[in-house]
Amino acid sequence: xxxxxxxxxxxxxxxxxxxxxxxxxxxxxxxxxxxxxxxxxxxxxxxxxxxxxxxxxxxxxxxxxxxxxxxxxxxxxxxxxxxxxxxxxxxxxxxxxxxxxxxxxxxxxxxxxxxxxxxxxxxxxxxxxxxxxxxxxxxxxxxxxxxxxxxxx
Length: 153
Prior knowledge:
There is one protein chain. α3 (106-115) packs across α4. The chain is built from five helices and six strands. By secondary structure, it is of the alpha+beta class. β3 (46-60) and β4 form a beta hairpin. Strands 1, 2, 3, 4, 5 and 6 form a six-stranded antiparallel beta sheet that branches. It has helices at residues 3-11, 16-25, 106-115, 117-143, 146-152; strands at residues 27-31, 36-38, 46-60, 66-72, 78-79, 92-105.
């Protein structure tokens, strides 16, 4: 999948200037199974959206056990480690299978939003969508039985 195709198909962007600008600053990245996109305590340098694959977000509890916090599994899911793009990671994001992500450098987002107001709208829609998915995942992980969680997943 190339950058222009993803931006048109997933975000609905039609502005040729914006598409050209995104092609210049964004990239599509492959993440091998088992690799961490970001680890607890690091800063995430790119806003990432899932093209294909599966990510798990987790933290380590006081007893040293990994606790799954969230998943990114649908095309277009926002693969982020914290609520603020300039904060340090509160969770580790690990690829559970060979994955492909669309990445926008965080330092470019403000510049793009100033030049193209459509980017602000897109980011708002994507963050709202991500929050809804995150809370649905939290409910499933904390309120469903093991069998129900398996069926949900």
